Amino acid sequence: MVLNPFDDGPVDGGMQSTAKILVAGGFGVGKTTLVGSISEIRPLRTEEPLSDRSVGVDDTHGVRAKSTTTVAMDFGRISFPSKLVLYLFGTPGQERFWFMWDDLAIGAVGAVVMADTRRVADCFASIDYFERNGTPFIIAVNCFDGAPRFEPHDIRIALTLGPEVPIVLCDARERDSVKNVLVSLVRYVMSTRNRSRATSALNYP
C-alpha cells in the first residue's frame, strides 16, 4: 500500500484505487461549490430554486443571498497520478432531506464536514452522524469573505472535538485549497485504519 496516494509515484502493481467520500455540512456552507471546484468531470448537481415553501423551514440566517438549494446530492470525481480516484458525494444540508444520508453514506471511506464560522452550530448534525456511524471525518472551515476568522484550536473547542480530528481552513472556490482538504482526509483515513490494524494485532490471542 502506498503511504501517500497523492504522490506522483505509481500504486503498487499499477492498480487503480477508488474511494467514495462524502461532503457534508449545513445549508449554504459551500458543499456544491467545493465539489464543483475540484471535479474533473462536469459535476452532477440537483439544485432547485428556493421557494415560498421554504420560508420558516430552511434557516437562511447568514446566507440571505442564497437562492438555490441541493435537494438530493452533488457528485464529482477527481483522479490523482498515484492512480487514486475519489468519488465525491455532496449531501443535502437541510434537515428535511437528512433521510437521504444513510443511502449516500453506503460504502464511504470518510467524510469532509464543512463549517461556516457564522453558523458553526450547523455542522453538529453531520458530526453526530459520522461519529455514530464510525466514519472518519475532518472539518473543513470554509473561509467566506467577511466571515469571522478563528484559529483551528478555537474551532475545535467550539465543536467539542478530540485532538485527533483534523481541522483545515479552506476556500471552497479554489481548486488547490480543496485538494489540500482531500489530502488531509485521505491521510487521516489511512492513519485511522493503520491504528485500527495495530490495535487488532495487539489484541489477537
Describe this structure in words.
By secondary structure, the protein is an alpha/beta fold. It has one domain (15-51, 65-186): Rossmann fold. The protein is 29% helix and 22% strand. The strands form 2 sheets. A 6-stranded mixed β-sheet has the order 4-5-1-6-7-8, sandwiched between helices. Strands 2-3 form a two-stranded antiparallel ribbon. The longest helix has 29 residues, at 175-203. It is globular, with a radius of gyration of 17 Å.
Would you summarize the structure shown here?
It is built from five helices and eight strands, in the order E-H-E-E-E-E-H-E-H-E-H-E-H. With 205 residues, the protein is an alpha/beta fold. The protein is globular.
Task: Record keyword descriptors for this entry.
single chain; 205 residues; alpha/beta; Rossmann fold; 29% helix
Compile the SSE list and pairings.
Blueprint: E1 17-25, H1 31-38, E2 47-49, E3 68-70, E4 74-79, E5 84-90, H2 101-105, E6 108-115, H3 124-133, E7 137-142, H4 152-158, E8 167-170, H5 175-203
Parallel strand pairs: 1-5, 1-6, 6-7, 7-8
Antiparallel strand pairs: 2-3, 4-5
Determine the number of helices (DSSP H or I, runs of at least 4 residues).
5
Low-pLDDT runs = 1-12, 54-58
Looking at the structure, the CATH topology is Rossmann fold
Q: Tell me the structural class.
A: alpha/beta
Adjacency order of strands in the biggest sheet: 4-5-1-6-7-8
Q: Can you summarize the main beta sheet? A: 6 strands, mixed
Number of domains: 1
CATH superfamily: P-loop containing nucleotide triphosphate hydrolases
